[in-house]
Amino acid sequence: MGSSKRRIPQRERSERQLVKLRKELGIKTLDEVKRNEITRVLVLAKGDRMLTAALLGIGKNTVYRYLEG
C-alpha cells in the first residue's frame, strides 16, 4: 500500500542530526545566543556583572547562571 521507507517525524530526530543541521544552516541555539550576548556585554562593562545585568535588563543571577553553563 505504501512505501517501505518511513519518513522520520521531526520529534524523532536525534540530537546529532539537529546539531549537524544547525551547523550546516549556521543556526545557534537560543542559549548560545544569550550566552554570547551576555559575554559580549560583560566585556564592554569591564567585568562588572551588576552593570551587565542592568544593561541587558536581566537579573544578576541570570548573568551568573549563563556564565557557569
Features:
69 residues; Arc Repressor Mutant, subunit A; 0% strand
Please describe what this structure looks like:
The protein is mostly helical. It has one domain (13-68): Arc Repressor Mutant, subunit A, CATH 1.10.10.60. The protein is 62% helix and 0% strand. The protein contains four helices and no strands. α2 packs across α3 (49-56). The longest helix has 15 residues, at 30-44. The N and C termini lie far apart (50 Å).
> Tell me about the biggest sheet?
none
Return Rg in Å.
19 Å
Mean pLDDT: 87
Number of domains: 1
* Share in helix: 55-70%
* Shape designation: elongated
Low-confidence region ranges:
none
**What portion of the residues fall into strands of 2 or more residues?**
under 5%
